[in-house]
């Protein structure tokens, strides 16, 4: 089993020491929840691609882990092609479920989208809290799945902003049951940016489909069944990761 991952703000190691003290919430999780002991392997990361392997030297108190043998910091390159999923806002906590599973499979960026047919709408303080939950979920799922580059969860986008994102992409698609092409047979780039739109439970409206088509996005079907919005992005992401060779 791979070593557990813990997040730090910075991986600038003290000169010549090769040691790092993990404290605060992450230290508490390592000591009191994971119950790590001297000699066990750990990975420290900033969640932005920088990471280092180390060995537990000591667990002190309830929230302080001393890690040694941190001799070098590695940089994981940005994956290519980069995959962004524009996720319409699901009902209840299914948004966090979508973010969690998309993070686990390896999606690079997630953009919340308040589609016209979304029942859930992020407004004011409620919207800020919901966005914070999505970002916290991506962070925790990134740790759980042993990633060292967590997905970026962007600011909520309007339909016009989604269209602008699609227009800049090397491959732009919208999951929709009316699609005359299968995503499984779409011609995909080997580099650049893939942007895929996942609509709400009520579907992408005709006006939104037309707007996205003008931006160069084609409607694609995923399979014979219609998936819920909270699972469609994960299923489509796994397909894209396989077909682009990132899962190989």
UniProtKB/TrEMBL annotation:
The kind of enzyme this is, by top-level EC class, is: transferase
Annotated keywords: Cytoplasm, Methyltransferase, rRNA processing, S-adenosyl-L-methionine, Transferase
Q: Would you kindly state one Gene Ontology biological process term found in this protein's UniProt entry?
A: methylation
- Which reaction is catalysed here? uridine(1498) in 16S rRNA + S-adenosyl-L-methionine = N(3)-methyluridine(1498) in 16S rRNA + S-adenosyl-L-homocysteine + H(+)
Which ranges carry the Ribosomal RNA small subunit methyltransferase E methyltransferase domain? Answer: 81-240
- InterPro entries noted in UniProt: Alpha/beta_knot_MTases, PUA-like_sf, RsmE, RsmE_MTase_dom, RsmE_PUA-like, tRNA_m1G_MTases_N
- Compartment annotation: Cytoplasm
Which Enzyme Commission number(s) are listed? 2.1.1.193
Give the Gene Ontology MF terms in alphabetical order: methyltransferase activity
Q: Which residues form the Ribosomal RNA small subunit methyltransferase E PUA-like domain?
A: 22-66
Role: Specifically methylates the N3 position of the uracil ring of uridine 1498 (m3U1498) in 16S rRNA. Acts on the fully assembled 30S ribosomal subunit.
Concerning its family, UniProt says: Belongs to the RNA methyltransferase RsmE family.
In Swiss-Prot or TrEMBL terms, this protein is called Ribosomal RNA small subunit methyltransferase E
Organism taxonomic ancestry:
Bacteria, Bacillati, Actinomycetota, Actinomycetes, Kitasatosporales
